Amino acid sequence: MDLSKTLLYAGLDKEEMRELLPEALRENGRFLRIYSIFASGVFIACLAASLIAGGQLNVNKPIYMIMIVLNVLIYMGVKTVMRKRPSLSTPLSVAFILGMYGYSFAVSLIHTGMQGTAAVAILVVMPCIFIYRPIYMVSLTVLMGSLYCFISAQIKSHDIAMLDLWNTLFFGMIAVLLSIYQMQVRFREMQKKRQNRILSETDLSTGVKNRNCYENNQDYYAKICAQSVTCVYVDVNGLHELNDQEGHESGDIMLKAVGSAMAERFGKENVYRIGGDEFVAFCPDAAVEKTRASISSMISELTGKGYSVSVGAYLEEKSRLDIKVLVREAEKCMYKEKRQYYEQFSHDRRQRRNAAANMSSGA
């Protein structure tokens, strides 16, 4: 087993890890919302118990209150900003982890005559509750375990400090091994889910997204755009004729070329094959000039390969945006161009037929 690969990428390749990290961030945000609610409830219950029982538990009240406030703030942060900025799950989850470690250290500082049971429990649990590269969780476990042993040695009696040291070493090793194993398992599960999702959302002939994904993602662009969304509607000219004359393999090659040309200019994540010879691309907040240049470049590339497409584009402002209407308007623009193409095609075909007839007559 490659230890560096295991620690850095949970046994995956570097590229595989890079592709999974955005999903890991979203998962961490979901976990954090659950954990912060649960932790708030636990500390509220602890605070209530300390108020009722009194005695030694009274000294823990400020710690419980601080932890309640911290977890409520973390939950509010997750609810308000996580949807737009999933990357914020990292600092928020780090704040949660450090808060839990801080709680266990504070309890240990207050109750110097007792072993650090809470600290050992936190040491084992924390590395396994979020999804990060194993090296991060191993480093955090070693750092916090070392810090706890240092604090224990400074404030507790020698016998208790030695017990804390032994427990920290023993359970810390378990935490390290568990975190490495858990991260490998969880990243592998994410990878399988991602592969299954890609297969269910991808048009296998062209490599772009399929009709099913198009139906599911329509509301997505209205949410993420700041000002407007442009729909580019593309219909492939002559697909049926090419299939009849040269076979379906040639038609598939043409469709793949169209999908590739669109993905290169509008982003693979924004291009959908919605019919046999129809494609749609969405361009959130794209400048009109840039969209026109992309369309012109795409047509030129496909023409150079001997293919023809009819293209319609329509832009709508966010305040009036209805994705279905947007697509319908772009489709109308496309059909207008397609009619012109077939009128010209029919005209050229009549000219060739008349020329052939004149040649026969002359002969």
Present the secondary structure layout.
Elements: H1 3-9, H2 14-53, H3 61-81, H4 89-110, H5 117-125, H6 134-155, H7 158-201, H8 211-224, E1 228-237, H9 239-246, H10 248-266, E2 271-273, E3 278-284, H11 288-304, E4 308-317, H12 323-362
Antiparallel strand pairs: 1-3, 1-4, 2-3
Helix pairs in contact: 1-6, 2-3, 2-4, 2-7, 3-4, 4-5, 4-6, 5-6, 5-7, 6-7, 9-10, 10-11
Provide a descriptive summary of the structure in words.
- The structure is a single chain.
- The protein has twelve helices and four strands.
- It is α+β, with helices and mostly antiparallel strands.
- It has two domains: 3-201, no CATH class; 211-362, Reverse transcriptase/Diguanylate cyclase domain (Alpha-Beta Plaits), CATH 3.30.70.
- Helix 2 packs antiparallel against helix 3 (61-81), helix 2 (14-53) packs across helix 7 and helix 5 runs antiparallel to helix 6.
- The longest helix is centred in the middle third of the chain and has 44 residues, at 158-201.
- The protein starts with a helix and ends with a helix.
